[in-house]
Every structure is written in C-alpha cells, then in structure tokens.
Model the fold of this input.
Amino acid sequence: MAPPPRLGLRPNAAQFTLLVVINALVGGMVGQQQTTLPLLAEQVFSLRGYSWVFAYVAAFGVSKAASNYLAGLLSDRYGRKPVLLTGWLFGLPVPLLIMWAPSWEWIIAANILLGLNQGLAWTTTVTMKIDLVGPRQRGLAMGLNEAAGYLAVSLTSLTAGWIAAQHGLRPAPFLLGVAYAVLALVLVAFFVRETRGFVALEAPAPAPARSNAGIIADVTWRHPALSSASVAGMANNLNFGLSWGVFPLLFAGAGLGLREIGLLVALYPLVWGCGQLATGWISDHVGRRPLVVGGMALQALALAVLAWSTVMPGWVAGTMLLGLGSAMVYPALLAVIGDVAAPAWRGRAVGVYRVWRDLGYTAGALLGGVTADTLGLHSAVWAAAGLSALVALLVARRLPETHPGLP
Done:
C-alpha cells in the first residue's frame, strides 16, 4: 500500500523535481525566440516601425495574462494535471509556425499560442509546487521553480543565438522548441501526478467560500499585500518585455554580432535564474518585503546603467544587475500570494496575480515601441528605469510583511 501523502520537499522530491524539469521546458519555449525574433523582424520581414515589431510581445502578454486566470480557475475546479497538459498542447505548434511563417502576422499568431502555453503550464506548475511543499518552505520552492524556468530561458537564448550564427535565423534555432514541447507532453501525460489532494493536508478545515469577484478585487486593489505584489510583478515583467524587444535591437544598432547579442540577452535571465536559487530561501528567513522593495530599486538602477552605457562592459553590468533585481523580486512575490491566499482559493489567486504580472509584457511592448518610435531606443530604457523607481517607492509604502513566522 502506498504511504499517505505528506507536505514538504523531501517526501515529494521525485514529483517536485519532475515539475522543476517541466518548468525549465516552459522557460525554454520563450528562450528559443528571445535572441532571434527582433532580428527576424528587421532582416527577414524588413519591418522598421518598433511598435509593429514589438507587437508579438504585446500579443504574448495579453494571451499569457488571460490564460493565467483560466489556469487558476480551471485547476481549482478540475485539477492541476489536465490544465498542465492542455498548456503543452498549445505549445507544440509554436516553433513550427515561426519556422514556416511567410509574414509577421504568423509570428504574432505563434506568440498568442506561446502565451497560452506559458500561462497554463507555468501557472499550474507554480500551484502544484505550492501544493506539495506547504507553508514552511514556500519561498525556497518558488525560488527553485523560477530558477529552473529562467535558467532555461537564458541557456536556450544563448544556444539559439549560437545556432543562428552558424545556420541562420530560421529554421534551426526553433528545432529546440519542437524538442522541448514533445518531451514535456510525454512527461506530463505519463509521469506527473495530480496534486490537488494535498490542499486538504494544509487546510483540513473547510475555508470560507470566496467568490471569483472578491478574489479579483483583493489581488487587484483591495488587499495591500496582494495588490502590491501585482503592481511589482507587472513592473518586473514590463522590464522583461522591454528587454525582449528592445535589447537585441539596441545592441545590434551598436554594431554587435549575433553571438555577442545572444550573450547579453542570455545574461539577464541567467543571473535571474541562478539568483532565485538563493533569494527564495532568503525570503523564508528575512521576509518577503525587503527583497521586493530592494529588487525593484535595483532594477531601476540597472536600467539606468543600460541606457547610459555605450560599450560592452556597461551592458554586461546592466544586464547582470537587472537579473539580480528580478531574482530578488520574483520568488518573493509568489511567496506573498501563497502566504496570504487560503489553499481553497490559492489557484485562483495565483492566476489573477499572474494576469496582472504578465500584462507587464504588453505594457513593456507598448512603452518600448511608442517611446522608441518617437524618442529612440535609449529613451525607452530610461522610461522603464523611471517607472521601476516609482514602483519601488510604492511597494515600500504599501506592502506589509506576509511571512507567517515574521512580524
């Protein structure tokens, strides 16, 4: 007879590790296109207006935001595994559409599907890991989850840039995405187990019923901790969306080649991913608030360094500082949601938070595109730096400490 389920990393190590691997594959689906798509826009499709070039990031952000909400709602209602599998079914056509795209509209359509893949799959792996570990190791669990995803973004961006330098912008770099999607579908279909039953271990007494409208209101504006997390998450992903569209063109305009651009684009998520191995654990010991406030302030400084620099050492320093700032913020924000949301409505709370957070991609694309078209690429980065500084001040004023063991 199988042993009864228990909360914690150690008793659930096998399933937790499998979910970490699957989330790495989710991140890799983004990484396959970070270095290449802005260059495809200019060199293959001959696009010149930045707003239209960055439309694929905006489409991705809207699609991912909407599917985040659906992931939370459906995983609470029907279970986590079916939602995770559906997310990967949406992911499978993405690299194929990019490889065969005859026009930029196909690229935008592919990124709508990529947003569905990311929203359903990443949100669900977050919820499943929170289910498995319980409250004591929540920050560590989120750090491991996000580290896997963003390390995969980084390594795949670097690999895709190297492949593109050797074999061209299409189709070779996107074969990575085909392999990731097929492997993920096999792992989810045959090896992942449902985790919704672990909710009863954390909260054996029935929790008061919460309406979807009430949860949306809390996470959007009403609850100081939940709404502050949404604002900070949106600002963080605005910076990520900006980096996705603006950075490759900024560096290419300075005369860098594909290998150098790939390295700089990869450095940001590399530091972000590695840093989360520590920052999630740190948030379990010093609290969530110091990491969120400090991380947003550091991102503002990093963007200022990137906008001011004109040579490789400055860009390296800026991208690494930006990655460290994101590493401080990301797992701490997810832990805030896990701290405050009751297990019975956790999936929906995570989903609504990730709606607002991932609309940051769209905001970054709009801010970057409009500002770059009117004032230039450097001005777009300066604008993001100023916005990040304002958000740091806002969360410093409004975000309370949510760690259950800290005042």
Summary: The chain has a mean pLDDT of 90.
